[in-house]
Structure formats: C-alpha cells, structure tokens
## 1
Amino acid sequence: MSILFRRFPLMLVLIHTLILSYLGFAKDVNIHVWDKLLHFFGFAILTFLVHFVLDCEDEKLDDNDNFWTWIKRILMSAVGFWSRKKNYVNNEVMVNENQTENVFRIQVEEEVIDSLSDINLNEINQNTNIENENRWKKYNIYLTIGVMVFLSIFSEVVQGMLPYREFDLYDILANLLGLIFGLLAAILCESLYNYYLRKKSSETHSLLHTSNRNSLVLDSVVNLPLNHDYYIEV
C-alpha cells in the first residue's frame, strides 16, 4: 500500500510557488495587471497543479481507513519518494490441451465457465476499484482544499507583517475564488480523462472477450480428433 507522487506536477508546483512568492513578497515589483486578477489566476493555477500531485491509482483502501490514516500514508510515502520504483509482475498461464474427444469436450466446457467467471470477477474487481478510487479522490479534494485555504490566508497575513506591504482582505477573497475555479477545472479534467480511459478499457475488454470466445470455437473445430465415428456411411 503506497501513495506515489507525480514528479512533473510537483516540480511545476514548486516553480509556480516560487514565482508567486516573488510576486507577493518582493519589494520592487511593477506589473501592469490588476492585483486581484493576479491573485485569482495565481491561486487557480496553483490549485489545479496541487490536485494532480498525488497519484493514488494503485492505492488499496480498507473499510476502516479514514482521511487521517490516508494522510499518514502520504507522509510515510514522502520519506522514500525519490527512491521509490514501481515493480511490475508478469503472470504466465500454461494451458494443457488433450487430444481425446471426451477430455477435450470437458476442457472446452471448463474454459467457457472459467472465462465467464473471470468476467464476473473482473466486473466485481472493477466496481471495487471504482469505489476505492472515488474514496481517495474525495480525500485528495479535501487535502487540496485544506492546503490551499491555508496558503491563501497565510500568505496575506505574512504580507501584512511586511513594512512595505499592506494587508488586504479582498486579496484573500480573490485567492479563495481562484481556489474554487482551479479545483473545479481540475475535477472536470480528471473526470473527462477517467471517462476516456474507462471507455477504452471497456472496448478493449469486449474485443478480448469476443476473440477469446472465437478462439475457443476454432480450437474446438480444429482439435477434434479424426475418428471414424464422425463419418456417416451412406
């Protein structure tokens, strides 16, 4: 059970945070853009990037897991972030074919039953994965909102403590509006991307199922033993 970090969005978050920090805390910055508009788009882009930092697609959530146990896993995963590698396991299936008529018919029936049961198990596993995916996405949204609300308020408080800056409550409002816009845009993009992946997966699964059934029929025709019992004397 591990939560991975996407390195490219994380790098973009760090770069964008440095840019916003310079624009917010530097003394002599002259930008001919409305200040509230800059706050809005700055936090909208930052929220959009923060939402995609965590990669929890391989995360398996238990029934007793809650938001805080999920946060602990994030902190534990952050310790070995740069040295973590994904391991992929390849499974090989050996199929033995019999040449006699009775054994072959039993084997074909078992393969058809196994294929149908595998389809049912795949549907159950797919539904379970969708439920887990919805849970961690909900936790990810909560975490993104918490982090960005803290940054939108804390950054303005720090600006108010500087002698050459003034505290402005409308800047916080612009930050929060940008947070909402960026989060909605991130959720929409993620939903469209997941819909595209599910559509491709269902099409591939249906094609594999059709080819599997066709291969079983062809094998049953090709591998039938040539016995005189199959011929009819006229």
## 2
Amino acid sequence: MAGGRVTGLQEAVWDAAKSICDSCGLTGANIGCVKRGCKAVTHYPCALTKGWHLDTNQYIPKCNLHRIT
C-alpha cells in the first residue's frame, strides 16, 4: 500500500494467471513457497492436499519440502 492505495495488484493478478500450479498443472497458482530459491507455486486447495504449511497468522506459506525449515 502507498498512501492508502493498493499498489501492484494488477501485476500480481496477471502473474498468478500465468503461474502453473506444481500440484495440478493448471494456471492461476497464487501461493508461492517463501524458502529462498524455491520456485514452488500452488493453488490454495492444492496446498492443503499436498501438505503445505500455511501460517495464516503471519501469511507465510512453505511447500511440503520446506515446511520444516
């Protein structure tokens, strides 16, 4: 946000629309692992079924490979 306005939203939507989910292979993946160097992206329902760690209090997603670290 900048001055009460959301910035970068349009770019984020377009990026998600082009991102391919590592779990199901469909486009629209909008959750990415926070581990440096990890390129895993997924949809929310796919993250739940694949064992991602989704910290909803701090909004920190970790893929199933990095959920411990």
## 3
Amino acid sequence: MNIPHNLLQQFIETIEAELQLLGQLEQSFEAQLDALRRHEHEALEQAAMTTSELVTRLERLQQKRAGKGRLLRRMLRLELSAPTEQLLAALEAHPESRPAAHALRQLQQKLQERLRQTRQRCETLEFSLKYAIQIGQELLELLQLLDQPASRVYTPTGQTRQACPQRSVVNRLG
C-alpha cells in the first residue's frame, strides 16, 4: 500500500509543532511561578492568560495529530483505536515509509518525555497556587478575627451597642 508522503510529513510537522508548543507552555508555567514568587499579580495574570491561549492551541494540535493518526490507520487497514506502536510497526513494514516511521518513533519518544516534564511543571504550579490561596484565606480569617468588637455598652435607653466605632481592617466591599 502506498502512503502519501505529504500525509506522513504533515503528521511529523504536527508532532514537532506540539513539541514546540509544550516547551512554550513550560515557559509559561515558569513565568507564573516567578510572578507568584515576586508577588507580581499583573504578571501572574498575564502569564495565566498566555497559558490559557497555549493550552487552547495545544488542544487543537492534539486533535489534528489524532485525525492524521486515524487517517494513517485507515490507510494501513488498522483499527482506529490501534496503539501508536502498532501504527509505527505497520509503517516500518513498508519500505517507502521506513524513514518517516523512524522519525515518528523518535518524535513520539520526545513527545512522551516532554509531556511528562510539562505535567510535572504543571503540578508544581498547581501546588504553589493552592498554597498561595490557602495562605491568603488564613490571612483573611486572621484579619477578620482582629476586626471583632472588643466590648459592648448599654445606652441610656437600655439597648446595647459597640463600645467603640467599628473600623474594618478588611475592605468588605471589594
């Protein structure tokens, strides 16, 4: 069976683009961590927006790669759910697609390693953000405890009121 060279090339280019995008995503995660360490909220927000855009682009590339993979599987008469290893073995069985299959095997290994690294960086960022949120909540609770009125006094009418006017430490409106 003759597999179009341009289809294999597009599949390779899609994986290469995905690898490049994963590298950018890792950099964006690192930028968020740096902004968090430096307490630069605007930089953190900007890096988070960049991350969101990169994730959207990455999802599109993954869909494109999956589509090309399904098309290759159909052309090789494999099950659409056949694992990548089976696809690569089928490509290697055809002499005209062996070089592309070898390149795809190397790219697949690089992709798996990059995905592992990116997941680790994402988990580090997730932990840091959750920790920062927890610290912020604890500080707010502490400030609210400081805001409690010290005592109450009786008014001439027999009612009780706060001994001194309440001064909020936390802006409750915004």
## 4
Amino acid sequence: MKRLEPIEKRERAGLVQSLKRAFWPGILGGLAIVPYGMVLLFWLHAHVDVYGTKTLQLLVAKPTPLLEFVQHMVISYAFAIPYVWALEQMRSWHNRSRTFHLLLGAAYGLLIWSAVNSLMLPVLFHDKTPWQLGWYAIWPSLTGHVVYGIVVALLARRQLRLVQATKVRASEV
C-alpha cells in the first residue's frame, strides 16, 4: 500500500494564504447581512437565525446575543474559506468582470442556503424543510445568504486582484 505523502510546503502555504485571505470577505459578508436580519426579525417577525440559536442551545442553555453574534462571525468566516480557496485555484477568473463575480457570489450564497439551511440543518434538527413551510420560511434566509455570497465574492475578487497587482509590481523591480 502506497504511503500518503505529507502536504507539500507550497500547498500548505497556499492553504494558509486562503485562510488569511478569507478572513475579511467572510467577516464583512457576515456583517453585511446583520442589519438585514435585524429588520426581518424585529419588524417583519420573519424566521431568521433559527438554526444559529438551535445550534448554540446544544452547547449553552441560554445563548446571549453576543454569543450568537460571535457564532455568526465564525460561521461567516468558515464559509468564505472554500470560496476564496476555489477562486485562488481559478487564476483566470481573477480578472473577470464585477458582474461575473456578483453572479458567482449569488450562486455561492444559493448553494450554501440550499445545502445547509434548507437541507442539512432541518434534517439534523428533525424540522420541516423551508420548502415544506412555504415561501415565508424561504425568502428571508435565502436572500440573506445570496447577499452574503455576493459580498464575499466581490471582496475576494478585489483582494486577489490586489495581490496579483502587488506580485506584478514586485517582479518589475
């Protein structure tokens, strides 16, 4: 049986860079949807952050708003990592238009919502899926995830283009 080789230094460095580069797009993407979520929660009484609260209640009997916010930021960062990593692998995509990245980010937000919020979490918590509950249970979370994806995509694009420009300038010197 062939022994697995350890991750090469360059690959490990690339992963570390992805972790670093995903931080601000993830955090700012998470922050971007907080005001939207507050409006939905307090004025429209919509279903927002239901699974964030349920997940925290597995660990803490009464989660505080601060703890929920910290959890939201950690999850926002975590979901930005695969997007930034994938974008870094697709070097030809760095210079594509803002519209391309806006649509790619919207698709990523839709993917997160579809896989996690509309399927995985309802199954894990033995809840009905949003599709079974109706449009009122779908649109608030779906819209928030799409906005998150767009913010992450546009910020990741900007960040990678700056890195690319810095490398070009450094090679010219």
